[in-house]
Specification:
The structure holds two protein chains of two kinds. Chain A is mainly α. Helix content of chain A is about 75%, strand content about 0%. By secondary structure, chain B is mainly α. In chain B, helix 5 runs parallel beside helix 11. Chain B starts with 14 loop residues before the first helix and ends with a helix. Classes of the chains: A mainly alpha, B mainly alpha. Chains A and B meet through helix 1, helix 5, helix 6, helix 7 and helix 10 of A and helix 1, helix 3, helix 4, helix 5 and helix 6 of B.
């Protein structure tokens, strides 16, 4: 049937186009990061194999960005801030979700409805008062200022509440009969049963923190304490001619998130498809 | 049930209710205090600040009532930024959602390329936006950019993507579509997977070809997911900021100066916190209004 062959050909072209458009730029980025300065210009046109493969591979761009521009410092700052944000968000969201799903106190439905309302407030609407609040609390220009406002996360509470509700309460009852305190129930009964959910929230939070750009830009005026996104953005907007360094910095900033995503893809996809979509 | 209060209406809280409240209070104290300070309090402050002429630099704070909102309605720069935002949103959503649905159909097929497609379109979603914008600025670069090289190879006259006032906004939109396409596609995929196979079989028995099945079965049953994708895409489009900062800084000739960029300029360049708060509230109301409109449209059908 020629129709079936045409159909298969069309599908193959569609897949090839998707792979070229979505993976091609990353290939070019990584290849360029390993090219010497002169080759970045000379190999891009006319197109050849050496456009996409470094002809004379070098680490000069990486040493340039790490040694001359102290990039390691910004990468370290980003890692510390993202790590703190993950720990804080998961911990506080778990505490709140436990109370909302396991303790039958009057007003808990109303409280949860309030959290849901906060979920829809966009960042732009509160960033100005958030900035003045953080100034008032003397967190401006400190590492704390980066992540403290975000660890109280309506999304985290909402997400873990959904996750905790999946776990039958019979398990807690047995522990309570044995005289376990609520904190013990959380730590020894609930947490071990919801680890995939916690990993998903940790992953979302890490990606969110690693991506943060505007908040670090306004809350931190000391450039030595900045995070990588702000460093890269400032390099790009300064119309730098050190393209090699920019390629190298961008590649380094991308590697941890891509690696994490490829490793934990299962959790990520399930997180997206189970939050709110299937209610 | 673990900690179950016996509730008697009209009576004082029973000991078990008090115990439950105490337990809940212990667990919720820190999370709720944080939410009150950083979320509830800030929304309240944004509303109050929008009624003041409030300059962080000079420290002046004068009550002006709805003055900031009146000023916004007459501010040509702000109105232009709203127009730019709307142009951006229409272009982005109009291209992104149909493409995302097509990609979701490719991901849904049970063949070995489904995983490849999913991973490929998802890489930009998890890449930091600053890196995506930088990567594309480099690709658009007339001297070292791969896109310029491809165009030259195809004998297309050179295009100055981010500098030409007619091209800047579409070029920027292409970047954010590239970044967000995978997310929309995943929403559609969740919808497609929820359609029972029997519906297609029934349509086939009735003699419907693939095209008619798509129009009469797939699309109507995806409505809820389309709406969700539309709401998320609209909210994101109205908040776009990072690529504008990295790639064009609002230029050329303010052609990419979106509402958020204009608002942040007022707030963090000129320190007009009161006026900028009013602009933020206006943008928030537009987002909420559009979302309500979408839900209404869905319900009337």
């Amino acid at each position: 049937m020629p129709g079936a062959i045409l159909r298969r050909l069309g599908l193959a072209i569609a897949v090839l186009a998707i792979v070229l458009v979505f993976i091609g730029p990353y290939e070019w980025l990584v290849a360029s990061a390993f090219k010497p300065y002169a080759d970045i210009f000379s190999t891009v046109y006319p197109l050849s194999l050496w456009t996409f493969v470094p002809h004379r591979p070098t680490l000069a761009n990486f040493t340039g960005v790490f040694r001359d521009q102290a990039f390691g410092r910004y990468a370290f700052n980003s890692l510390v801030v993202a790590g703190a944000q993950v720990v804080g968000t998961v911990l506080l969201s778990a505490l709140a979700a436990f109370a909302l799903t396991r303790v039958r106190f009057p007003g808990r439905r109303l409280l949860f409805a309030g959290v849901l309302v906060l979920l829809v407030i966009p960042f732009d609407a509160i960033v100005i008062p958030l900035f003045t609040t953080v100034r008032t609390l003397h967190l401006q220009d400190t590492y704390w200022g980066f992540f403290v406002p975000w660890i109280f996360s309506p999304f985290g509470i909402f997400f873990l509440k959904q996750v905790f509700e999946e776990i039958p309460t019979e398990l807690d009852e047995a522990a309570i009969m044995d005289g376990a305190s609520p904190l013990r129930v959380l730590m020894h009964v609930v947490i071990p049963n919801v680890l995939p959910g916690l990993v998903t929230l940790a992953l979302f939070t890490f990606l969110f923190a690693w991506d943060a750009f505007f908040w670090p830009l306004v809350v931190m005026s000391d450039d030595t304490k900045q995070v990588i996104t702000v460093f890269i953005a400032k390099q790009t907007t300064s119309q730098t001619q050190f393209w090699g360094n920019l390629f190298a910095a961008s590649a380094v900033a991308t590697i941890p998130v891509i690696a994490l995503f490829l490793w934990l893809q299962r959790y990520y996809i399930r997180g997206i498809t189970t939050t709110g979509l299937k209610d | 049930m673990p900690i179950e209060p016996q509730r008697r209406r009209g009576a004082l809280p029973s000991p078990s209710t008090r115990r439950a409240l105490l337990t809940a209070g212990t667990f919720l104290a820190v999370p709720l205090a944080g939410l009150l300070i950083f979320r509830v309090g800030t929304v309240g402050q944004a509303l109050v600040n929008s009624l003041y002429q409030y300059n962080l630099l000079s420290g002046t704070r004068v009550f002006v009532g709805v003055g900031n909102y009146v000023r916004a309605a007459q501010d040509a720069g702000f109105l232009l930024s709203l127009l730019v935002t709307c142009q951006y949103a229409v272009m982005k959503i109009g291209v992104q959602l149909p493409l995302a649905l097509g990609i979701a159909l490719l991901m849904q097929k049970s063949w070995r390329w489904a995983g490849v497609v999913r991973t490929a379109v998802y890489l930009p979603v998890v890449t930091p936006f600053v890196v995506v914008a930088t990567l594309w600025a480099l690709m658009y670069n007339p001297t070292i950019g791969i896109i310029a090289a491809l165009l030259r190879t195809a004998r297309v006259p050179p295009l100055n993507f981010l500098v030409d006032p007619r091209l800047a906004l579409p070029s920027l939109t292409a970047v954010t579509i590239w970044k967000d396409l995978g997310f929309s596609a995943l929403i559609f995929l969740a919808g497609l997977q929820g359609i029972p196979q029997g519906y297609y079989e029934a349509a086939q028995v009735d003699g419907a070809g693939p095209w008619r099945q798509f129009w009469n079965v797939t699309l109507p049953l995806l409505k809820r997911f389309t709406l969700f994708a539309l709401v998320i895409a609209t909210i994101n489009a109205f908040q776009v900021y990072t690529p504008v900062y990295v790639m064009t800084q609002g230029g050329p000739l303010d052609r990419t100066k979106v509402a958020t960029y204009y608002m942040y300029e007022r707030a963090f360049l000129f320190y007009q916190m009161g006026y900028a708060s009013a602009l933020a509230i206006i943008v928030l109301l537009m987002i909420l209004g559009l979302s309500a409109l979408y839900f209404r449209l869905l319900r009337t059908e």
